[in-house]
Design goal:
Blueprint lengths: L2 E10 L5 E10 L2 E10 L7 H13 L6 E7 L10 E2 L2 E2 L28 H13 L4 E6 L4 E2 L2 E5 L13 E5 L8 H11 L5 E6 L8 H17 L17 E3 L3 E5 L4 E5 L6 E2 L4 E7 L4 E6 L4 E6 L4 E2 L4 E7 L1
Parallel strand pairs: 3-4, 3-7, 7-11, 9-10, 10-12
Antiparallel strand pairs: 1-2, 2-4, 5-6, 8-18, 9-11, 13-20, 14-16, 14-19, 15-18, 16-17, 18-20
Helix pairs in contact: 1-4
């Protein structure tokens, strides 16, 4: 299988070096869907990049595919360089605080001299994705998280092999200038249909060998189900998972300053009053239980465990 690697200049640094986006194109000899796969748009969300490199290696051993694939393992070479003292940052542009996944628009805007780096990145990625009938943006979430999917209701079945443990469905009113929804919107303006999703495949800043292999099998299952790869003889359809509207997603906040120690795992359903963590207060030398304020489904635990009153603890669904 012939795979073409192209480097697209993105930003010239003060050193005179240039940051590039590397794209990999794979075109089959048979008709089929056109699929765009992207990872590492946010700096700490590195699992998607490794996952797509794993896919490129796999494709190089295959005789053929149906349709075409465009793969961008590292969508944001600026964000991934945001590192400090052993930790990966880069969800936002460190210079101005802009979220790298809130820079996109409902139509592709071509850029030129004097435009911002956010405009240039958005234009480059949306142009690369344009014309594909399937777009998948691979992200990660928090300190510990179950794999979950953000997708339009009418595309949930299509992306089901990736769903993992939870599906969050979005509608037109949920538009937040994210990459996947912008690809759908720009296709509509051009009179085309594109199915797009954001796949929260794992946890920020880490790549575990077992997790990588599990998500890779999920990805192969998805590419088989949509017709790019031949169906594997041992492929099993994904089991039904809990599905919630995006409007039901909430953030849990600390109600006191403390060290928070989790006693529940992501993927747990809690009833109002159930214990989800224990709080250790350094100001009085005492600990206490943390209780669910309402019935909820725990999706993601956020990284900080030394928290002040009002800081984020977790992403949950209010049930």
């Amino acid at each position: 299988m012939m795979i073409t690697n192209t480097s697209i200049p993105l930003q010239r640094l003060v050193s005179g070096d240039t940051l590039c986006i590397h794209t990999f194109a794979c075109v089959g000899s048979k008709p089929g869907p056109s699929v765009y796969l992207q990872g590492n748009l946010h700096g700490p969300e590195i699992l998607g990049g490794a996952l797509l490199v794993r896919l490129i290696e796999f494709l190089s051993t295959q005789p053929d595919i149906n349709g075409r694939l465009t793969i961008v393992p590292l969508a944001n070479p600026i964000g991934v360089q945001s590192q400090e003292y052993g930790f990966q940052f880069g969800r936002w542009n460190a210079q101005n605080g802009k979220d790298w996944n809130r820079i996109f628009s409902k139509k592709i805007v071509l850029t030129g001299h004097g435009d911002s780096i956010e405009q240039k990145l958005a234009s480059t990625l949306q142009t690369l994705a344009n014309g594909h009938d399937t777009v998948l943006d691979i992200h990660t979430s928090g300190r510990r998280s179950i794999p979950h999917l953000y997708v339009a209701s009418d595309s949930a079945d299509y992306f089901a092999p990736l769903a993992g443990r939870c599906v969050l469905t979005v509608d037109e009113d949920d538009y937040l200038n994210a990459f996947d929804e912008s690809c759908v919107a720009s296709a509509v303006k051009e009179g085309r249909k594109t199915q797009a999703a954001t796949w929260e495949a794992g946890t920020h800043g880490t790549i575990g060998a077992t997790e990588l292999e599990e998500r890779f099998q999920n990805l192969l299952g998805f590419l088989s189900s949509c017709g790019v790869l031949p169906a594997a003889s041992d492929f099993k359809p994904a089991a039904a998972v809990p599905t919630f509207p995006l409007k039901s997603v909430r953030t849990l906040y600390a109600d006191s300053s403390c060290y928070i120690v989790w006693v529940t795992e992501p993927g747990t359903t809690l009833r109002a009053g159930d214990i989800f963590a224990r709080a250790y207060d350094p100001s009085n030398g005492q600990s206490s239980d943390c209780f669910a304020p309402y019935d909820l489904f725990l999706i993601t635990q956020y990284p900080l465990q030394a928290v002040s009153d009002g800081q984020e603890l977790a992403k949950v669904v209010r049930m």
